[in-house]
Design a protein that fits this description.
With about 180 residues, the chain is mainly alpha-helical. The chain contains nine helices and no strands. The protein is globular, with a radius of gyration of 15 Å. Its cofactor is Mn(2+). This is Phosphohydrolase. GO terms for molecular function: guanosine-3',5'-bis(diphosphate) 3'-diphosphatase activity; metal ion binding.
Length: about 180
């Protein structure tokens, strides 16, 4: 097995362990790990991304934000490059949700290429989920608002991957009317 494949599998296992008690907000309460796996798959399959650091960061993109995992743990287990990308895509949960959203829009264009790829794939996955299996407590307006906010974030991420930009645009076209 190649070192890159081993790293990716270790990251998938790590993410699965850290997210093991979490569920998505959809009606089926599907396992949370489905989301980071979908983000990594979007990068690899639709974006043609083969860089292991980017794929590993995609698998781990929510572990610091949504679990007890620390940035130091990510660094210790997966190295500085991965930890740096994860840090770039992690929101500060001490801030109010509206401020976190504002900062995602504001900071999108200054992210590294790897962080932009992960963030774009994350938004693609989220839009697709909002269409196929929205949270039951999200009304029409909340779903519309999320689509518009995601569009604003992705405008700052453009220029790193035409295939991912096209995938985002296709997902965005499915926005609630």
């Amino acid at each position: 097995m190649s070192a890159d494949l081993g790293l990716i599998l270790r990251a998938a296992h790590f993410a699965a362990q850290r997210h093991s008690t979490q569920r998505r907000k959809d009606a089926a309460a599907s396992p949370y790990i489905n989301h980071p796996l979908a983000v990594a798959a979007i990068l690899a399959e639709e974006g043609g991304i083969t860089d292991s650091v980017t794929i590993v960061a995609a698998l781990l993109h929510d572990v610091v934000e949504d679990t007890v995992t620390t940035p130091d743990e990510v660094h210790e287990h997966f190295g500085g490059e991965v930890a740096s990308v994860v840090a770039e895509v992690t929101d500060d949960k001490k801030l109010e949700p509206a401020e976190r959203k504002r900062l995602q829009i504001q900071k999108a264009s200054s992210k590294s290429e790897r962080a932009k790829l992960v963030k774009m794939a994350d938004k693609i996955a989220n839009l697709r989920d909002l269409v196929s299996c929205p949270p039951p407590d999200w009304d029409h307006q909340r779903r519309c608002d999320y689509f518009e906010w995601a569009h604003q974030v992705v405008e700052g991420l453009r220029g790193v991957s035409r295939p991912l930009e096209e995938a985002f645009d296709r997902a965005y076209e499915l926005r609630p009317a």
